[in-house]
Automatic annotation (TrEMBL):
Reaction(s) catalysed by this chain's protein: a fatty acyl-[ACP] + S-adenosyl-L-methionine = an N-acyl-L-homoserine lactone + S-methyl-5'-thioadenosine + holo-[ACP] + H(+)
Family assignment from sequence similarity: Belongs to the autoinducer synthase family.
Biological process, per Gene Ontology: quorum sensing; signal transduction
Keyword Transmembrane helix: no
GO MF, one annotated term: N-acyl homoserine lactone synthase activity
Keywords for this protein: Autoinducer synthesis, Quorum sensing, S-adenosyl-L-methionine, Transferase
EC numbers on record: 2.3.1.184
Name this polypeptide is given: Acyl-homoserine-lactone synthase
Domain of life assignment: Bacteria
Record has Disulfide bond as a keyword: no
Length: 188
């Protein structure tokens, strides 16, 4: 397992294309989300030059996980598309609060992994730990996510300090919620 972090310009073009195809396979083909696609890749308006990514690869170089990080001081998914998930509270807008989105850890090369088990795998936990650490390096003190309700299980089991920003809602037929994840600073 190897995690790489960077922007679309610092990741190789080939790796970034594989991330787009991986996201297509996870979010559109497996989970059935209705999202924007381009040439078999799932990318949207939040995949900008300043967007940061954490990519997990197996020992053979296959993408088996990804995460997207955006500062909430710029347009981001929750703020632009799902503000109702904040349950009436203002959407975050700060360089110290980053959004974690398009988080997935499905190993399509493993026969034992399903989309539903992604939230409890070793890859998922490490990818989330590395995403939090990378966000902290950028100055993040908290993360906010728009997530399927199943992510709560990963967060609870793995000991992450997280809590709901609002109650879950059914949107597009899927139960999702906004969740705060606290970024613990080194030595804190």
């Amino acid at each position: 397992m190897n995690n790489i972090a960077g922007s679309s310009s610092t990741l190789s073009k080939e790796l970034f294309e594989r991330v787009g195809r991986y996201r297509h396979k996870v979010f559109i083909e497996t989970l059935g989300w209705e999202l924007t696609t381009r040439n078999g890749e799932e990318l949207d308006q939040f995949d900008r030059p300043d967007t940061l990514y954490v990519v997990s690869q197996d020992d053979d170089g296959n993408v088996n996980g990804c995460a997207r990080l955006l500062p909430t001081s710029q347009p981001y998914l929750l703020g632009e598309v799902f503000p109702e998930l904040m349950n009436g509270a203002p959407v975050p807008c700060s360089d110290e609060i980053w959004e974690l989105s398009r988080f997935a850890a499905v190993d399509f090369n493993s026969r034992t992994t399903s989309a539903l088990s992604q939230f409890s795998s070793e890859v998922a936990v490490r990818l989330l730990q590395d995403s939090i650490a990378f966000a902290a390096e950028q100055g993040a003190k908290r993360l906010i996510t728009v997530s399927p309700i199943g992510i709560e299980r990963l967060l609870r089991r793995a000991g992450f300090h997280a809590h709901r920003a609002g109650p879950p809602m059914i949107i597009g037929g899927h139960p999702i919620f906004a969740c705060w994840i606290e970024v613990r600073q080194p030595g804190a």
